[in-house]
């Protein structure tokens, strides 16, 4: 009986224990919070590549020094051997080579062949006509036409024809040599051999001689000024150039280049500056340096523009504040013929022209312009340009010119 009671008690205890475990499990499930949604996975960067030495450390935010502040060991410190340091070589500006111009004496004679090539139409044409057996009126009209075509001018042509008529009539029989001599004499008389054709570059005082060069744009005025500097240097004179042509681009550079080639200093100002001021400074510098000659290249003037011509007169007046102007050279393009005479008249009204420079007398130029322009202005041709070469500007020599005109 006791065994039965013990078995019942054990069974009751077991049932109670199992019931308690079930109740406890249900309470724990009710107390758990609702499940949270899955969070976004965190992406971790791949490990950096392995580094060497100090760089293997984690980078730290530290102030950085520029490379220039970091002292590097010198070659002597690194090797322990003194190293010789050479001074840096500084390139010095190379001065332009000074040229020695060709002597002016006899320069036109040396250029005679070049001059003759362009003048044979006049000289040979006249000799051919005068060599005819019968010189009738038609022949004399042809001679007149030949002279007019060569830009001799109406009045000089009529004068020359009349003198030739008289001398041929007296001469009678005419050999080629006699005709050449006759024509040479008459042309020389027409051109003139007694005029003073030297370019006046001496002032007679302690100041330099002052030469002003004028002319229309395109006549070769600036080039002529540079070539004239060469002529003067070749004769042993020291020259200062005044670049008063401020209205034409690069005119001052062009003149300075000419000056540097012969060792002449160029006084210049800003582009578009006052030409009179630059001319004044050029003469002032010439006096200070003790130069022999000052050449002033003026701005090219359109002879149809009254205001510009008046400005040219201003340049002349300003220059004369230092002393008298010794020479005023008018540059004319020989190929323009009678049009050059129109320019000459207007320039002569503004400034007192004392000499004429005929450029481009080779090529298509006609030799008669020498006679015509002298008659028009009453001043001599002093210089002639016979080409593009640096030494192709020559003092005008009537005998050499006429010999080239009529040929041998």
UniProtKB/TrEMBL annotation:
Q: Which InterPro entries match?
A: AAA+_ATPase, P-loop_NTPase, Signal_recog_particl_SRP54_hlx, SR_rcpt_FtsY, SRP/SRP_N, SRP54_GTPase_dom, SRP54_N_sf
Which reaction is the catalytic activity of this chain? GTP + H2O = GDP + phosphate + H(+)
- The main place the protein resides is membrane
**Residue positions binding GTP:** 215-222, 297-301, 359-362
Any idea where the SRP54-type proteins GTP-binding domain is?
A: 380-393
Segments for region (Disordered): 29-85
The family note in this entry says:
Belongs to the GTP-binding SRP family. FtsY subfamily.
**Subunit note:** Part of the signal recognition particle protein translocation system, which is composed of SRP and FtsY.
Designated name of the protein: Signal recognition particle receptor FtsY
Q: What gene name is listed for this protein? A: ftsY
């Amino acid at each position: 009986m006791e065994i039965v009671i013990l078995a019942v008690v054990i069974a009751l205890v077991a049932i109670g224990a199992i019931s308690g475990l079930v109740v406890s499990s249900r309470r724990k499930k009710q107390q758990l919070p609702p499940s949270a949604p899955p969070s976004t996975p965190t992406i971790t960067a791949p490990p950096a590549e392995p580094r060497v030495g100090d760089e293997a450390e984690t980078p730290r935010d530290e102030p950085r020094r520029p490379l220039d502040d970091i002292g590097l060991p010198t070659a002597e410190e690194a090797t322990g051997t003194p190293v010789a340091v050479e001074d840096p070589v500084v390139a010095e500006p190379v001065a332009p080579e000074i040229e020695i111009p060709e002597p002016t004496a006899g320069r036109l004679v040396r250029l005679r062949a070049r001059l003759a090539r362009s003048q044979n139409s006049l000289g040979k044409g006249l000799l051919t006509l005068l060599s005819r057996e019968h010189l009738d009126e038609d022949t004399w009209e042809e001679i007149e036409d030949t002279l007019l075509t060569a830009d001799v001018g109406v009045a000089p042509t009529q004068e020359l024809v009349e003198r030739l008529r008289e001398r041929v009539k007296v001469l009678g029989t005419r050999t080629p040599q006699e005709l050449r001599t006759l024509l040479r004499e008459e042309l020389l008389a027409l051109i003139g051999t007694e005029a003073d054709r030297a370019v006046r570059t001496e002032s007679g005082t302690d100041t330099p001689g002052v030469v002003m060069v004028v002319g229309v744009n395109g006549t070769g005025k600036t080039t002529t000024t540079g070539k004239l500097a060469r002529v003067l240097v070749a004769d042993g004179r020291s020259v200062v150039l005044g670049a008063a042509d401020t209205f034409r681009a690069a005119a001052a550079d062009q003149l300075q280049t000419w000056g540097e080639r012969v060792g002449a200093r160029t006084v210049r100002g800003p582009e578009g500056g006052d030409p009179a001021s630059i001319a004044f400074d050029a003469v002032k510098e010439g006096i200070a340096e003790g130069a022999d000659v000052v050449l002033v290249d003026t701005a090219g003037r359109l002879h149809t523009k009254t205001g510009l011509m008046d400005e040219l007169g201003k340049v002349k007046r300003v220059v004369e504040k230092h002393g008298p102007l010794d020479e005023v050279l008018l540059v004319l393009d020989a190929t323009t013929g009678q049009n050059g005479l129109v320019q000459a008249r207007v320039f002569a009204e503004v400034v007192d022209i004392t000499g004429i420079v005929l450029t481009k007398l080779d090529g298509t130029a006609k030799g008669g312009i020498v006679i015509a322009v002298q008659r028009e202005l009453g001043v001599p041709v002093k210089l002639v340009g016979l080409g593009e070469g640096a030494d192709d500007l020559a003092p005008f020599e009537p005998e050499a010119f006429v010999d080239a005109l009529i040929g041998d």
